[in-house]
């Protein structure tokens, strides 16, 4: 995904405030979609930004497959319309999507080719929609910590920069999958007798559904990033275990390394986002904690702003054509 596109989108303005004006179905609807490796979150509003419903669905990160991504997005959107007691029709919808994996040009092209017949569609990385939502379009840094991880910043000119996010298993430092991949090593050692059995190993064993070495090997052969991420809560739950404590300390240092190149002056506010944001707060280096702020909004709200801009551009083009 060319980040020049991100910069142009950011420069278009800060997040528009949701209002309370009424609309008819003929005006269309806006859908802000945040899609990652663990799930999909959707905000549905009318054409003027009045929130109608929120919903969630299965994973829609592109690394898990384009067909699965659109299926999860469609199911989540339908749930939102059901919650609002409205009929669901793609052609009435302007979509803004912040998705994991759009930096892979082939995945993005396949996703676009499979798109339903929507009114308007804008797609950016989930990192961009996260920083857009977290700081309301103003300068700042975010570190998104979920199944995967990535850091992003917006500067005063609206330029978006990215750090990390190279994907599982080589990248995504401090992510749930990163934690799980390292935590399962403790279980392997215990099953071999290289380390004594303890509460942490029993919890990890239960989360994998394995009962012995052979069944764990089967789990490992089938495990993807989502599966490894299911082990992350066990690391936080057993934070007093020496190995888990070292792993969490290492993760905190990795978060600092993700932020450093995005804000060399150490002046921008930082927001941790995603499902692991709160559990990680105590492990972030002290110098970063001093600048940490609660996110103003989430990635789905940032994606909703993309939908608003896409719908506005469509309306403007239609007006010029008259």
UniProtKB/TrEMBL annotation:
Native organism is Caballeronia ptereochthonis
Record-annotated ATPase BadF/BadG/BcrA/BcrD type domain positions: 31-262
Entry protein name:
BadF/BadG/BcrA/BcrD type ATPase
The record's annotation in SUPFAM superfamilies points to: Actin-like ATPase domain
What InterPro entries does the entry give?
Answer: ATPase_BadF, ATPase_NBD, Euk-type_GlcNAc_Kinase
Query: Which top-rank group of organisms is this from?
Result: Bacteria
């Amino acid at each position: 995904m060319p980040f020049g596109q991100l910069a142009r989108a950011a420069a278009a303005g800060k997040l528009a405030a949701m209002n309370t004006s009424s609309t008819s179905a003929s005006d269309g609807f806006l859908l802000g979609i945040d899609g990652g490796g663990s799930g999909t979150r959707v905000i549905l509003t009318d054409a003027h930004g009045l929130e109608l419903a929120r919903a969630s669905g299965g994973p829609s990160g592109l690394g898990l497959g384009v067909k699965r991504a659109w299926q999860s997005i469609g199911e989540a959107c339908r749930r939102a319309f059901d919650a609002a007691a409205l009929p669901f029709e793609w052609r009435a919808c302007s979509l803004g999507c912040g998705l994991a994996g759009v930096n892979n040009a082939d995945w993005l092209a396949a996703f676009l080719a499979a798109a339903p017949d929507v009114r308007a569609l804008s797609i950016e990385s989930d990192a961009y929609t996260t920083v857009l939502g977290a700081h309301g379009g103003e300068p700042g840094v975010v570190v998104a910590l979920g199944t995967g991880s990535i850091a992003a910043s917006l500067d005063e000119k609206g330029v978006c920069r990215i750090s990390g996010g190279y994907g599982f298993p080589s990248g995504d430092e401090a992510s749930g999958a990163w934690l799980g991949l390292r935590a399962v090593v403790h279980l392997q050692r215990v099953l071999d007798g290289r380390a004594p059995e303890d509460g942490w190993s029993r919890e990890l064993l239960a989360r994998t559904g394995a009962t012995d070495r052979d069944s764990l090997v089967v789990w490992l052969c089938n495990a993807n990033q989502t599966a490894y991420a299911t082990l992350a809560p066990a690391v936080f739950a057993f934070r007093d275990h020496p190995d888990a404590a070292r792993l969490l300390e290492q993760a905190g240092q990795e978060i600092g390394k993700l932020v450093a190149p995005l804000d060399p002056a150490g002046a921008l506010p930082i927001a941790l986002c995603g499902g692991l944001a709160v559990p990680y707060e105590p492990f972030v280096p002290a110098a970063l904690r001093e600048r940490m702020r609660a996110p103003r909004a989430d990635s789905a709200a940032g994606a909703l702003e993309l939908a608003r801009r896409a719908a506005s551009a469509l309306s403007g083009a239609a007006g010029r054509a008259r």
